[in-house]
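Progress report, Aim 2. The chain analyzed during this reporting quarter is listed below.
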Amino acid sequence: MANWFTRLHDAMDSRKFGPMTLNAPAGRLLVTHHGARILACQMDAAEQQNLFWHPAAMEDPASKIFTGGDRLWLAPEVAYFWPSLEKAREDPVKWARVPEVMDPAHYTATTSSLDQLNLRARMTLTDARVNKRINLQVDRLIHLIGPPAGLPAQVACLSYALTHTLSLLDASPEGPSDIGALAGAWTLLQVPTTGTLICPVTRKTDPRSYYDPFGDVHVQNDDRQTRFLIDARRRTKMGILPGATIGRMGYYRKLAGAGASTLIVRHFPALPGEPYVDFPRACDATQRIGGDCLQAYNDDGKYGSFGEMEHHDPALIVGQGPGVRSATSVTHVLAGPDDLVRQAGKALLGVEPTLIAAP
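Predicted C-alpha cells for the chain:
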C-alpha cells in the first residue's frame, strides 16, 4: 500500500496541480505549482508522518480541499481578506475570504532543477480599506540547501531557502497601480499539533493579540523568549514587532515513539524601521505601517488540527521607496532523539526549546 507521501503526490497529480519532489539526503519535500505550495516534508527519521500539516482528506484524488504546508500570501490581511474593515471587525471568521488571485493564484515555473524551483505569478489586488489597486509580479524561489554545521550525528536535518520577490508592474487590464497602494510578502507554515513555537526576543515583549484573548496558558513570556502553544484548542494569533524578534523561531514537538522529537527552525529578516504592514483589525483605520514581523496562529479545530509559524517581509509601497522587494528566509527541519534535538535547537535559536504543557 502506498504511503501517505505517495498518496498525496498522486492526488495532487490527478488534480493537475503539478506536484514535484525535491529530494535531500535526509528526506524530501512535496511542492505543487498550483498555489506555489510546499505541501509536505517527509524525513527518513519520521517517515510515517508529514512534519508540516495537511488534512488527511487531501490524499483522496476526489477531494476538493487544498490547504496546508508552507504558503505565500500577501499582507496586509485587513486590506485583502475582508470586504471592508467594518466587516472584519464585525465577524472575522464569517467574512474572511482568501483572494483566489493570491492563493492559489496562477503560478508558472520559470526555472526548475533537481534542487530548486522558481514559481511566478501576476496579481492585481485592491485594498478594501481605500479602494487602491496594486499590480505585482510575485516570485517564489524554493531551493534545497545544506544543513547547518555542528549538528549531532544522530539528528537528521533537511534545509531549504525561500526567496520571495515582489516587483511592481506598470499596469494590469484593470489599470495602473494607485499611489500609496501596498503589499508585503507573508510566509505561513502550517504545522501539526501539539507543540510549542519558540520565539527568541531582544527584550521581554507583550505580543499583540489578533483574535481571541491569549488566556493563561497559550502565550508565555520572559526576557529571552516568547513561547506559543499550538494545540488547536483555542483560536489565537499573536504578533511581535521587528525590533523585538531576533529573526528566528522554532516549532518544537515530540513524536510518538521512543524519545524522538522534531524541530522546525526558521531564520528570517527582522528590519526595524522598514515598512511592515500587517497588524490587528482593532488598530486605527488610518494606520498603514508599524506592523508586526513575526506572527503565530493556533486554530481552534474549526479548520483543522494545526497552527502556523508566520513572518512578514517589508512591504512594497507604490510611489514610496523601491519598486522591487526581495527577501530570503532559511528553514531547517530537524528530527532525532529528543535530548539531541533540544541541544541543536539551543545552538540554532539561542534558547533551549521547552514545551508548554497543554491544558
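The chain has one domain: 4-349. The chain has five helices and 22 strands. These observations will guide the mutagenesis work planned for the next reporting period.
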